[in-house]
Design a protein that fits this description.
The chain is mainly alpha-helical. The protein contains 8 helices and no strands. The protein is flat and about 60 Å long. The termini are far apart.
């Protein structure tokens, strides 16, 4: 029955967290029915990663078996996408979704203002993510203690930018007109 569900294309329905233009989507129920194949959007975006479900609780028996085999020495050189690449892909998908949603605005002035505001926030967010990644990659033993503090600060800066991004996306997905009024007023600060 799992093969039938897979052939029916159920892994290509629901949410695309990592690539909204891919027909492959992620859904926990399909993952359960197909033993992990339901996290198909992640697999299409990161095909070299041995996992389909990246969270420990996501139903992906193959991931668990491969992990166990690696721990006992029967599998090696497992490929995992970095948390930074995964975050970057999720943010890019969210940004694409918002940009498509903004195109429904008919007032050209509002459209231009909102598009610029979203782009500015997105660029800031991706810069904070890149700074966090760069800082986290410091590997020198002499700099490790100082690097830990810088990593935590870079992570905090990113988390603040992410909270602002989430507030913006939530308000836009719920009520674009209200979101425009709130964020248009924030430009005058």
């Amino acid at each position: 029955s799992c093969d039938i569900l897979y052939q029916l294309g159920l892994s290509h329905v629901w949410e695309g967290h990592y690539d909204i233009h891919s027909t492959a989507k992620d859904h926990w129920f399909v993952a359960y029915l197909t033993n992990g194949e339901g996290y198909h959007n992640f697999h299409h975006r990161f095909p070299t990663d041995y996992r389909n479900g990246i969270r420990w609780y996501q139903w992906d028996p193959s991931k668990w078996v491969i992990t166990i085999l690696a721990r006992i020495g029967m599998a090696w050189d497992l490929k995992r996408s970095s948390k930074f690449s995964i975050l970057e892909a999720r943010l890019a998908a969210e940004n694409q979704t918002l940009c498509e949603r903004v195109t429904t605005i008919t007032d050209p002035h509002r459209f231009a203002h909102i598009k610029e505001m979203l782009q500015t926030h997105y660029v800031t967010l991706t810069q904070k993510l890149a700074a966090w990644e760069t800082t986290a990659q410091l590997q020198s033993h002499e700099l490790q203690d100082a690097a830990h503090e810088r990593i935590q600060q870079a992570k905090l800066d990113f988390e603040i930018a992410l909270q602002e991004w989430r507030a913006l996306t939530r308000s836009w997905l719920r009520e674009p007109v209200y979101a425009y009024a709130v964020y248009a007023g924030s430009d005058s600060k």
